[in-house]
UniProtKB/TrEMBL annotation:
Name listed for the protein in its UniProt record: Methyltransferase
Presence of keyword Methyltransferase: yes
Origin superkingdom: Bacteria
SUPFAM superfamilies the record matches: S-adenosyl-L-methionine-dependent methyltransferases (SSF53335)
Biological source species: Streptomyces lacrimifluminis
Gene Ontology MF: a single term: methyltransferase activity
Record GO biological process: methylation
Length: 233
């Protein structure tokens, strides 16, 4: 799942017209989109706890009755979470930086809406969404940009709307160099759930739940996974 990045590079990056780490993230995921889809196509379907968290989130959103009733899956990547939330009855659309990722999402989920853009600057009016999902897309946002990002999430949520975050837990970031043999690199930033909860509170949101599961070593994970849900009062 993709949006604003910490570190990524490839020859010929053009970052003159937008923030460097945003442009770099676009380049990274454009380069690996099909490889990423083939490698991780099982997605959340292989993880029962993830499915349960998303199902619980859908219930909270349906019960809130906030805004337009729409949910934005920000940094949607190939659209796995977008499609799953749609199957749960939510009115959901996806947004991503990467045109290549969006091409995969549109191919795999032809009945859903996917748009290109940055979750740091959403082209949405204040208070219009019933829900925002950022499923492993904040892992590319530098720590000093998280307050502004969470404030943007809060801005577009209607009163009573819900936010769901998924991310890896830890203090040591993980760097991927030339994944799938592609000439790009990326640093994935791990976070502490308690710190993310503090930042969400500072952004004006109220924590609803905090779920952490152990790393699934059989799936190649090296760190626990966290899922935080918050509500706009």
């Amino acid at each position: 799942m993709t949006d604003a990045a910490a570190t990524a590079a490839t020859p010929g990056d053009d970052t003159d017209t937008e923030t460097d780490f945003v442009a770099a993230t676009r380049v990274f995921y454009d380069a690996i989109a099909e490889d990423y889809f083939d490698r991780f196509r099982a997605g959340h379907a292989a993880q029962p706890l993830e499915r349960a968290v998303l199902a619980a989130y859908a219930e909270f959103v349906r019960g809130s009755g906030g805004g337009s009733g729409q949910v934005a899956d920000l940094g949607c990547g190939p659209g796995w979470v977008t499609g799953f939330l749609d199957s749960l009855g939510l009115s959901v659309f996806g947004l991503d930086l990467s045109a290549s990722m969006l091409a995969v999402a549109r191919r795999e989920h032809p009945g859903l809406r996917f748009e290109q853009g940055s979750m740091l600057e959403l082209d949405l009016a204040d208070g219009t969404l019933a829900g925002v999902v950022s499923w492993y897309s904040t892992v590319h946002t530098p720590a000093d940009r998280l307050p502004a990002l969470f404030a943007e999430f809060c801005r577009v949520l209607a009163p009573g709307g819900h936010l769901l975050l998924g991310f890896q837990v830890g203090d040591v970031h993980k760097h991927h160099d030339q994944p799938f043999g592609r000439p790009v690199s990326m640093t994935f930033q791990r976070r502490r759930p308690e710190r993310i909860a503090e930042l969400l509170t500072e952004a004006g949101l109220t924590l609803v739940s905090q779920t952490v599961r152990a790393a699934d070593e059989q799936a190649g994970e090296s760190s626990p996974q966290a899922f935080l849900m918050a509500r706009k009062p």
